[in-house]
């Protein structure tokens, strides 16, 4: 008997509903092509949640997420409405951060791929990207400098202030994120570049030791260590050398944004936040575009739906274990981009007729079903 996969689809605000519609259409095309059973349940979050239920993430929507194999998230937040509710009730905190906490989403994956037909959108000179750009940043999301204790500001006797943040990691925290990176590398080009500052940080030495130990369980994957500052430089000098870039929280925050710039538009960038493993190879996860609700273009039908559609492919791969199906969507996207279709955000100067959100989504569905 085939499994029914349950997906909570939370479109949110701004361009969220427009791009989510296309991602759901693509999932339906995958369902048809591969004879799967997907139970996709849509529910309001963010300002849409506040308007519907009086809160950005209501208990019934949270329960829907708990009953699902994965969450496909759009984006939340409307700056114009920010001052109408207390800070802790704003959607970014009350919906997104609450979901991350509720499901202990400790691994953030951000694939950055520059398609050959979109090199004009990359800020690097063409000779720097001759090998292409196809990097997966795996960032630890719940430990390190952002959460370590002590984290405090005190006043010194002379009136100055002293602020302390602590970069804290345990063996377990490093082990579990390293496993995510090695498992992901197995589905790619089998190279993990682990970044740290083992030359100056105690936590960096532990990080390097633990990652080296975990690597022994993945003899088919090559591991290299690189100081985080050098990694920042190599991403610009030779981005094509990277496959999986493993980072602790703070370095990952910076390196993932740097890598993201290489793709040319936020509209091209998906992300996955993974929690505890639910099966040998699958994990519960929240999948969302790296960008926000883009209120400046919302409602115009011009948003790039690829970040949302690519988020759905990550969901297929990491939470449902459907690698072949995910690869089919990726191939369809590559084919549509190769055919010359471009949304406005990645449009070449000579292209005078960019496609809209709907047309891009439809083209991908057609390519999957062709
Ligand atoms: P943003 O990412 O929404 O937009 C930045 C720029 O990128 C805008 O010019 C926008 O038009 C463009 N852009 C983003 N996605 C695009 C797409 N798919 N296609 C084409 N262009 C795209 O960032 P912002 O304007 O700083 O934030 C807007 C709101 O989104 C704020 O309320 C913010 O808090 C929220 N936000 C939410 C999330 C989330 O839900 N995860 C993440 C970031 C920002």
Structural class: alpha/beta
Number of domains: 2
Order of adjacent strands in the largest pleated sheet: 2-1-3-12-11-4-5-10-8-9
Structure annotation, total helices: 11
Shape: globular
Mean pLDDT: 95
Classified by CATH, the class of the largest domain is Alpha Beta
Beta-strand content estimate: 15-25%
Write out the distinct hetero groups bound to the structure.
nicotinamide-adenine-dinucleotide
The total strand number stands at 12
Our Rg estimate from Cα atoms comes to 21 Å
Order of helices and strands: EHEHHEHEEEEHEHEHEHEEHHH
Reported by name, the CATH topology of the largest domain is Isopropylmalate Dehydrogenase
Main sheet summary: 10 strands, mixed
Q: Which percent range fits the helix content?
A: 25-40%
In CATH, what is the homologous superfamily of the largest domain?
Answer: Isopropylmalate Dehydrogenase
* Oligomer category: single chain
Gap between N and C termini, in Å?
Answer: 27 Å
Unreliable stretches:
none
The CATH level-2 architecture of the largest domain is identified as 3-Layer(aba) Sandwich
């Amino acid at each position: 008997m085939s499994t029914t996969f349950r997906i909570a689809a939370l479109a949110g605000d701004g361009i969220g509903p427009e791009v989510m519609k296309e991602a759901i259409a693509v999932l339906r095309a995958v369902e048809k092509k591969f004879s799967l059973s997907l139970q996709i349940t849509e529910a309001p979050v963010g300002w849409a949640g506040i308007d519907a239920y009086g809160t950005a993430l209501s208990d019934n929507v949270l329960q829907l997420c708990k009953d699902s194999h994965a969450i496909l998230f759009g984006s939340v937040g409307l700056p114009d409405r920010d001052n109408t509710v207390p800070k802790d009730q704003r959607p970014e905190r009350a919906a997104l951060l609450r979901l991350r906490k509720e499901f202990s989403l400790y691994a953030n994956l951000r694939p950055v791929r520059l398609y050959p037909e979109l090199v004009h959108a990359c800020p690097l000179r063409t000779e720097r990207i001759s090998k292409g750009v196809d990097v997966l940043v795996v960032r630890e999301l719940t430990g390190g400098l952002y959460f370590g204790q002590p984290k405090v500001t005190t006043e010194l006797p002379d009136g100055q202030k002293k602020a302390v943040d602590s970069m804290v990691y345990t063996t377990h925290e490093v082990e579990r994120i390293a496993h995510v990176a090695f498992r992901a590398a197995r589905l790619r080009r089998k190279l993990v570049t682990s970044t740290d500052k083992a030359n100056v940080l105690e936590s960096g030495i532990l990080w390097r030791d633990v990652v080296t130990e975990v690597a022994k369980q993945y003899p088919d994957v090559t591991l290299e260590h690189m100081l985080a500052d050098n990694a920042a430089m190599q991403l610009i000098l030779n981005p094509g050398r990277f496959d999986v870039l493993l980072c602790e929280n703070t370095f990952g925050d910076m390196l993932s944004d740097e890598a993201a710039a290489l793709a040319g538009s936020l509209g091209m960038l998906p992300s996955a936040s993974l929690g505890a493993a639910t099966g040998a190879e699958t994990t519960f996860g929240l999948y969302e575009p790296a960008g926000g609700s883009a209120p400046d273009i919302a409602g115009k039908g011009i948003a790039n739906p690829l970040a949302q559609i690519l988020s759905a492919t990550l969901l297929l791969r990491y939470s449902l274990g459907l690698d072949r199906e995910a690869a089919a969507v990726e191939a369809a996207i590559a084919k549509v981009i190769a055919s010359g279709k471009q949304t406005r955000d990645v449009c070449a100067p000579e292209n005078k007729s960019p496609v809209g959100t709907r047309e891009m989504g439809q083209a991908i569905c057609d390519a999957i079903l062709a």
